[in-house]
Structures are given as C-alpha cells and as structure tokens.
From TrEMBL:
One of its GO terms (cellular component) is cytosol. Pfam families: Beta_elim_lyase. Coiled coil: none annotated. This is Threonine aldolase. It comes from Tunturiibacter lichenicola. GO terms for biological process: glycine biosynthetic process; L-threonine catabolic process. One of its GO terms (molecular function) is L-allo-threonine aldolase activity. Keywords: Lyase, Pyridoxal phosphate. Residues 3-285 form the Aromatic amino acid beta-eliminating lyase/threonine aldolase domain. Belongs to the threonine aldolase family. Its cofactor is pyridoxal 5'-phosphate.
Length: 348
C-alpha cells in the first residue's frame, strides 16, 4: 500500500532503530536520562532558545504552552481550522480553563489585521485575551506557510499590547524548507514553540516544546500533570536526535512529491477543485465535484476506491480529500499514486 494518509505513519529508519537499540538511558523524571538531556539541549540550540522539553505528543506540547501563558476564564486567539481547536479534544478548556476566540483566515494565515479586532476589550465583564496561537505550516489549510514578514508584524503587534504568542510548529521544518529559512529565524519572535519529531522528520514518537528556561522549568510540572513523565525515554529520544539533525535535509523531496500529486488532481478540473498555489509543503487537499458540479463529490467513496487500487488517503469532510507525503513514499510510489488518482478521478 502507498500510504498517503499522514506523515505520522512513517517507520523508523535503520539508523533510528540502531540508535534506539544502543541508546544510553536513565530516569528522565529525575532528569537523569543523558540521551533525553542531549535532545533537549540540541533542540534548544537549533532554535536559538534557552531550553526545551521532550514530550510524547504535539498535543501535549501545545496544551502545556497554553497553560503556561493563561489562567482560567481567559481566551486564546487561534485560526478557525487550527489544530489546537479541532484536534486537541477541547483541552484548552479542560486543562487550562480557556476558550478559543477563532478567526477565519484565507489559507489559514493569520495576520495582525485579523488578530487585532479579536482581542478582548479591557472590560471586567468580558473574557480577556491571554494568548495568540499560530500554526505554521497550517495542516487543514493544506500545509500552507505563513511568511516571515507576516509573523514579524504579529510579533510586533503582540508585544505592543502585551500578549504572548505561541507557535504550533508541528511541521515548522516543512515551513522553513519552503521559505528557505532556518527554523531559528522563522520562529524567533514566538514566546514558545512546539514542533513534532514524529511527522515529516520521521521519529516514531515525540515532540519538543521550546522557550525560556523559566517557562520550560514550569512546563515540567504540567508535563507530569498530564502523564508525560517518562522514565528511560532515551530509547525514543535517540531516534529524535536523528530526526532533528538529519531528516530536515530531505523535506524538499516530500514537497516535490506533493506537487506531483497536486498536478495529477489539477489535470482533471471537471472532477476536482484544487488551489495549486496553496500546495506549498507536503500536504495536498482538494474538493471533489459532483456529477452536476453544483454539489460536492463523495470523498469517502473516492478514498475507498483508491484503497482498492493500493493507495491510502484521508477523507477530511464529505467532499474533501487529503494526501500527505513523507519519506516512506518515494518518487516512484508517488508517481504510481498520481496515475491511480488520475484514473479514479476520470472514472467519477
């Protein structure tokens, strides 16, 4: 099967498996696991930060960050399709006691002009804004990338009004690759940054949360509260070190393969609608057209037909389909998948 459901389906590389088997370990709850300590130190250096913490999942990293910046009864500004809103099971409410103030933005790119009007007025009976949360790249907008000048304007505006800014950077290395920037440069103005080792970077488990030493010291409390106190975690941190240092170098391959798939979809304009300009990283999202083109096509049925031909994809709504490329599907596999996609679209 050619698995294009997500970049979370990757299997550890041979180098990762070898590193995991020979990893030096200790008890990380006592901060005694040397491999975890090295991963946290190296991640902080790559991003130009004082400190970082290794967490099991990106969701945990995001939710710890929200807890760091807020108190109960406040609001978090985020884009209307953001991961912290739609895919983290209301944890900003359950764990931090906050509600989301959502703002819809074209291609998921929140600008300061979007954000400023959503900031709560300083009235005692109005929930106060505590945090701005951005996502780069933006998953459900199709892997779109927020450019540095847009971020710089948000950082400056947030500083002026005294608000912290968090980045859900699950795929920030993809965003940096697309823009030709270092992750340190692209994330320099955020108060906290989360990124995933287990998506495009290919590690089997884990994400990192970065920030000041003070914030990461506090983050250890919340990680433990959420059940993230791991013991001999160096076994998985060893794979994370390879993901951090080696895997970003090949992300452009995934982006090129995503474009190949997107072009296959675009070649059948009577059967599907796709914004090719939005295909900027490793995610492809498109909408199927109905037989009369007035209504959308059957995404679940289309995905089922692809599966019968050996291609796994995701239906992300009644009419929309998502592909995600990664290192476990090479150019040959994506070329084959593109041909199957074209064939199935023509058959609709």
């Amino acid at each position: 099967m050619i698995d294009l459901r997500s970049d979370t389906v990757t299997r550890p590389t041979a180098a990762m498996r070898e590193a995991m088997a020979s990893a030096e370990v200790g008890d990380d709850v006592y901060s005694e696991d040397p491999t975890v300590n090295r991963l946290e130190k190296d991640a902080a250096e790559v991003f130009g930060r004082e400190a970082s913490i290794f967490v099991p999942t990106g969701t945990m990293g995001n939710q710890i960050a929200i807890r760091l910046h807020t108190r109960h009864g406040q609001e978090v500004i985020c884009e209307a399709r953001s991961h912290v809103l739609d895919w983290e099971i209301a944890m900003m409410a359950a764990f931090s006691g906050c509600q989301a103030r959502t703002v819809a933005a074209e291609r998921g790119i929140l600008t300061w002009d979007h954000i400023k009007p959503a900031i709560g007025a300083k009235i005692y009976y109005r929930a106060q804004t505590a945090l701005i949360s951005l996502e780069n790249s933006h998953n459900m907008a199709g892997g779109t990338v927020t450019p540095l000048p847009v971020l710089e304007e948000v950082w400056a505006g947030a500083r002026e009004v005294g608000l912290p800014v968090h980045l859900d950077g699950a795929r920030v290395f993809n965003a940096a690759t697309a823009l030709g920037l270092s992750v340190a440069k692209l994330t320099s103005g955020f108060d906290t940054v989360m990124f995933c080792l287990s998506k495009g970077l290919g590690a089997p488990v884990g994400s990192m949360l970065l920030g000041s030493k003070k914030s990461i010291d506090e983050a250890r409390i919340y990680r433990k509260a959420l059940g993230g106190g791991m013991r001999q975690a160096g076994i998985i941190a060893a794979a994370g070190l390879i993901a951090l240092h080696e895997m970003p170098k090949r992300l452009q391959e995934d982006h090129s393969n995503a474009r190949l798939l997107a072009d296959a979809v675009a070649s059948e304009p009577s059967k599907a609608v796709i914004d090719l300009d939005a295909v900027q990283t490793n995610i492809v999202i498109f909408k199927l057209l109905g037989t009369d083109q007035a209504n959308g096509g059957d995404a679940v049925g289309f995905v089922a037909a692809l599966k019968q031909k050996g291609v796994l994809a995701s239906a992300i709504g009644p009419h929309s389909v998502r592909f995600v490329t990664h290192y476990d599907v090479d150019r040959v596999a994506c070329t084959k998948a593109a041909a199957i996609v074209s064939e199935e679209l023509r058959a609709l």
